[in-house]
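Internal tracking record. Fields below are filled automatically when a chain is submitted to the structure queue. Please do not edit lines marked as system-generated. If the sequence contains nonstandard residues, flag them in the REMARKS field before resubmitting.
Queue: standard
Priority: normal
Entity type: single polypeptide chain
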Amino acid sequence: MAELLTVDDPDDPRLSDYTDLTDVELRRRREPAEGLFIAEGEKVIRRARNAGYEMRSMMLTAKWFDVMRDVIDEERAPVYAVTPELAERVTGYHVHRGALAAMRRRPLPAVDTLLAPAAGDVRRVAVFEDIVDHANLGAAFRNAAALGVDAVLLTPRCADPLYRRAVKVSMGSVFHVPWTRLESWPDDLGLLGAAGFTTAALCLSDRSITLDALVTRAHEKLALIFGTEGDGLTARALAAADAHVRIPMDAGVDSLNVAAASAVAFYATRVTRP
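SYSTEM-GENERATED OUTPUT FOLLOWS
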């Protein structure tokens, strides 16, 4: 059982995991290097623990002591009790949810391990190329979890799905969809082909077919590829994909936000499972 430890100094080294949470560039460098990520809010903390992530520590304001009592009683990691004012000084923002936990990252699986038959019935995969907006990535992970995507692959320059903002927007869905990061892009699309997947790039190219047409082809294994928010997919990724696919639009709208597009594509191509 963890003990509540009162901390009243914002420079206390025990709170170092929580410092400067609004400094995106600092946290993007620091968190993967130190093997940690921050879970914010009761539901997200519980979902991280339920997914098997180990807690390093927890920082709570008084209003959350009773709400999180079962977690406190089960944990051996230290739990730091702070005032809302001190939490704001440490993190750099008003922590209105009042509950933060520093969690340990797990090693990412190899792509072939994620796609192997031993990983389960992997038939729908999402590939995100260079999506740098954490909110969009978090929303896309939530869509993937809700709409039957079995695994997510990220290109090397894609945002960190375990960054606090991405985790928060996903409502913890990032903990429940197996994912990993590709090492060589777009060369690693060959790994999907070798595993029996048809790769379909969402784009507006001259050769693109409609999403409805893709659905009629009834691919057993399908990997949907989504590009960055501004420029879409790179030319090399488009050249490497087996098919180009567009979502038909009305009212002169040419495209959707990447998170919205992923929801439409995931739903349309979902697999009916027992």
